[in-house]
Design brief:
Blueprint lengths: L3 E7 L28 E10 L4 E8 L4 E8 L5 E6 L1 E10 L5 E2 L11 E4 L9 E9 L7 E6 L1 E2 L2 E9 L7 E10 L2 E2 L8 E7 L1 E2 L5 E3 L3 E3 L2 E13 L2 E8 L8 E10 L5 E10 L4 E9 L12 E2 L2 E7 L4 E5 L15 H13 L16 H8 L13 E5 L10 E10 L2 E7 L12 E5 L1
Length: about 425
C-alpha cells in the first residue's frame, strides 16, 4: 500500500498567529496576520510514494478552522504559527483536487462534505486525522505522524460475455455505494448508484473500462445487469455477499449461460493497492429478472402470446414469417407437417431457451391473430395451428389453418382443414421459462 505521512513538529517560541482566510493558504500568504499572543511554530513535512497533492486543515478545540496549507507529498516543508492549545489536524490527499468539491474555508468544519465535481471521476481520495497539543515550554517534542488511508475503490473494468445476438444494448448498475464523505471520514446518510453503459466487442462480449474511483458500500452492493432487446429491457438483479471495500481494484466479469434456466455468472476480482487480493463470485438467473413478460407486448424482442405467472412460463411468437416448401394442396397432413420440420429446427431461439419451436394451439392462434399490429398490412394472418381440442367440428391433434374475421365490429376465428400453401403462413411459437 502506498502510505503518505504528514510529519508535524512543534517548536517552542513566541510568534504571531496566522489567521484563516477564505481559500487555500500557503505559508507566505499568512504574513501580516495579527499577533494574538504566545504562539508556537508548527512545521509539517509530507512524504510518501506517488504523485499525490495534499491539503492540511487545522481546527481548534471549537472546531474553527485556524489554518489551511497545501503542497505536494514529499515536497517542501509546510510551516505555520499557532497559539498554544489543543488542535485537530485533518489531511486530504488526491491526485487531482479539481475533481473534488469542498466548502470555502471560512465555512469549513470537520463534518463538511467532500463531494466529487464529476460523477465519473478518476480522482483518488485519501484522508487522515490526528490531534496535536502545543504547549509553552516544550522543546521540540510535539511530533505528529499522519498516515493517509485510501477511502475509495477503483472500478477498473466490466465485461459481460456470451451476450445473445438479439441484445441491442447492455448496461450494469451498481447500487448501495456511499455518495459522499465528510472531512472527518464519516459518511452522510443515504447511498447512490452508478450506471455504466457497455460497448459491443467481438465474440458476443460487451465491456467498458470506466477506471473510476468510487466510495465503498457500507453493506453488500446490489448489481443490476440490463439486457435491451430494442425498447424492451430485461433486468437481472443480484445482491452481493460482501461490501466493496476501499483500497481495492475491482473487475467485474459476467458469463451468460444459455440454458433453460438462464443464469449469469460473474466474478469480482478485487486486488488491493497494497497487493492483497480478494475474489468474490455470484450467480443470478431469470428468477432475479425485474420484468416479467406481458401478453401482447415484446419480451426479448418476441411477441408474447400467453403467460402463466404461477409457473413462470410464457409462449412467444416467432419474430418473422417462416418460409417452407409446401407440398401439393391435396397432400396428406403428414407431408405438410414434415415440410415444417427443417424450417422450424433452423429457426433461432430466444436467449436461454432449449425448447423447440412448435405449431401454435387453437387458443394461441386465435389469440395472436386478433392483434392487428402483427398483420404487416395484410387483411389477416392465415396461420397453421395444431388443434388440441376434440369438438363436433374439430379432430384432436390435427393440423388446421385459421384466421380472425371481423364482421360488424365483432371477431370470429375461422378455421379449415383444406390446406393451401399459397395462403397459409407458418408462424411457430416456443415455450420459455422466465
Amino acid at each position: 500500500m502506498k502510505k503518505h505521512f504528514f510529519l508535524v513538529t512543534a517548536i517552542c517560541g513566541m510568534m504571531s498567529l496566522s489567521a484563516c482566510t477564505e481559500g487555500v493558504l500557503n505559508h507566505d500568504e499568512t504574513e501580516g496576520s495579527e499577533a494574538l499572543g504566545e504562539t508556537t511554530p508548527l512545521l509539517i513535512h509530507t512524504r510518501g510514494d506517488g504523485d499525490v497533492q495534499s491539503r492540511v486543515y487545522i481546527f481548534d478545540s471549537y472546531d474553527h478552522c485556524v489554518e489551511s496549507l497545501s503542497g505536494e507529498v514529499g515536497g517542501e516543508v509546510l510551516a505555520t504559527r499557532l497559539p498554544m492549545g489543543a488542535y485537530t489536524v485533518y489531511a486530504v490527499g488526491t491526485n487531482n483536487f479539481s475533481y473534488l468539491s469542498l466548502p470555502a474555508q471560512s465555512s469549513l468544519t470537520p463534518t463538511s462534505v467532500i463531494a466529487w465535481a464529476d460523477a465519473n471521476t478518476t480522482a483518488d481520495l485519501l484522508l487522515a486525522e490526528a490531534p496535536v497539543t502545543l504547549r509553552w515550554g516544550q522543546e521540540n517534542v510535539a511530533q505528529l505522524n499522519l498516515e493517509l488511508q485510501r477511502k475509495v475503490f477503483s472500478l477498473d473494468a466490466i465485461t459481460i460475455h456470451q451476450v445473445p445476438d438479439e441484445v441491442t444494448a447492455v448496461s450494469v448498475k451498481v447500487s448501495g455505494l456511499r455518495g459522499q464523505i465528510r472531512l472527518n471520514g464519516t459518511y452522510p446518510e443515504g447511498t447512490v448508484s452508478k450506471t455504466f453503459v457497455l460497448t459491443e466487442g467481438s465474440d458476443h462480449s460487451w465491456s467498458v473500462a470506466p477506471e473510476v474511483k468510487l466510495l465503498p458500500s457500507d453493506d453488500a452492493p446490489t448489481i443490476d445487469v440490463s439486457f435491451f432487446f430494442g425498447e424492451q429491457e430485461v433486468v437481472y438483479t443480484y445482491t452481493g455477499t460482501a461490501p466493496f471495500a476501499a483500497n481495492t481494484k475491482v473487475t467485474l466479469t459476467g458469463n451468460y449461460n444459455g440454458s433453460q434456466n438462464i443464469s449469469l455468472r460473474a466474478s469480482l476480482t478485487a486486488q488491493a493497492w497494497d497487493a492483497n487480493t480478494q475474489d468474490v463470485a455470484f450467480d443470478f438467473d431469470n428468477s432475479h429478472a425485474g420484468q416479467a413478460p406481458v401478453v401482447g407486448s415484446r419480451y426479448q424482442g418476441y411477441y408474447v402470446v400467453s403467460v402463466n405467472e404461477t409457473a413462470r412460463k410464457a409462449v412467444l411468437l416467432t419474430k418473422n414469417l417462416v418460409e417452407y416448401t409446401a407440398p401439393e394442396n391435396s397432400a396428406p397432413e403428414a407431408d405438410w407437417l414434415a415440410s415444417f420440420v427443417t424450417p422450424m429446427a433452423n429457426l433461432a431461439k430466444p436467449s436461454g431457451t432449449t425448447a423447440d419451436w412448435r405449431l401454435p394451439t387453437y387458443a394461441e392462434a386465435k389469440a395472436f391473430t386478433q392483434d392487428n399490429s402483427l398483420y404487416d398490412g395484410d387483411i389477416s394472418m392465415i396461420v397453421f395451428y395444431h388443434d388440441e381440442r376434440e369438438t363436433r367440428d374439430h379432430k384432436p391433434n390435427t393440423l388446421y389453418w385459421g384466421y380472425t374475421r371481423y364482421t360488424d365490429g365483432t371477431s370470429k376465428f375461422v378455421s379449415n382443414i383444406s390446406y393451401d400453401g399459397s395462403k397459409v403462413k407458418l408462424y411457430p411459437v416456443i415455450d420459455i421459462d422466465y
